[in-house]
User: Fold these one by one.
Assistant:
Number 1:
Amino acid sequence: MCQRSVFSGLIISGIFYYLSSSAVVESIPKLPFLDVEFSSIESLRFFLLILYVGTGVIAWYFSHRAVKILSSIEDNRVEMAVSKYPCIIVSNFGVRLCLAAALVGMGIVILFQIFNDNYFYIIFLTLIVYPPFYMTLENGKEIYDWGNSELERKDS
């Protein structure tokens, strides 16, 4: 679920970037899964922002849950196998840096597009948009380090 939420966040930010890059929006797209129509591009942008933050919170919740489950495992071999389960957030520094740039950076771009020059709202809402994906990536780092620290212990 965490990985799906991260991919959803990337897709939402991509859609938003596409909508922001077009100079004139001739018709506002309808969301196919929710059957929702929007009256203005601003309402669509605000909805995407809420959806974006929601996917971040879901990703953080499931990554936090994964850390708790991993820490509750008593058998070292099972613990090691679980920490090596492939997930996009359980990766090295370079991949996490690219994800942070894509997820957090696009969240801030979304805020700038919605609130133009109102820096108070941008700074305030950055404190809401930034933490869920940041904490998700930190939990992924903890799991990644967990698996690699076990390898270091075996080497020494």
Note: Residues 35 and 122 are 29 Å apart (CA to CA).
Number 2:
Amino acid sequence: MTKLIVSNDFNLEDIQKIREYNSLRHVQMTPREIIEDARKGAAVILERLRQSEKASV
């Protein structure tokens, strides 16, 4: 898996894709790099969730 693609509705399957994608990437990373990477990714996902909440209101 070279690029992660999630659906517009961001469902359970997307979360599973993210976990698999990250596990493959994190094999070669230090614990500190993994934590930094997770924080960056979480910020992107939280922003997408906020946008979808605004769109559904």
Note: Helices lie at 12-26, 31-56.
